[in-house]
Structures are given as structure tokens and as C-alpha cells.
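YtxH domain-containing protein
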Amino acid sequence: MGFKRLALLGLGAAGAAYFKKKENRDKAKAAFEDSKVKVSQMVDDAKKSYDNYKTGEKTTDYSHEDDKMMSEGAQTSVQYYNEQQEDQEEKPPRPGTPE
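C-alpha cells:
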């Protein structure tokens, strides 16, 4: 218990000596304000991200199939692309459209 008191006393004395100069106080205030802004931006971003997650909104413009393809990896994406190309080639042309 005595060591904690001595450590706190030493910390307090060092802080008092440091903040004695106005220049150091101004630096500390500026650093505190910058940190406050950064923390509030991070909290706002986290809230937006959580709200988007909670409501199910997507942040990308991809379709569900594209999301599925990207999550499966490169090998299956090539297979998916090839299947899509084959499906397009196999479809008969619509009536009234030139071939």
C-alpha cells in the first residue's frame, strides 16, 4: 500500500512540474482535443456500421450471387464465370432480335 502512495505522489509531482509551463499545458490541451475528435469519429463510424448491420443494409452494390461468388474464393469464381458464359451462349435468341 505504501508503494502505491509513493508512486502516485511521484506521478503527481512530475505532472505538476510538467504542467507548470504554459507551453506544456497548451500542448496537452491540443493533444486531448485531437484525441477527443478522433474517438468521437470512431464511435460514430462504429454506430453507423452497427446500424447498417442491424438493418441489413448492404454497403456494396453487388448482387447476392456476386457476394456468394466472392466469398467462395478464386477457383469457384472462375467456374461461376464459365457457367454464366455457357448459360448465355445456350439461351436461344429472343424473337424479333437480330442474331
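Helices lie at 2-18, 22-55, 64-72, 74-90.
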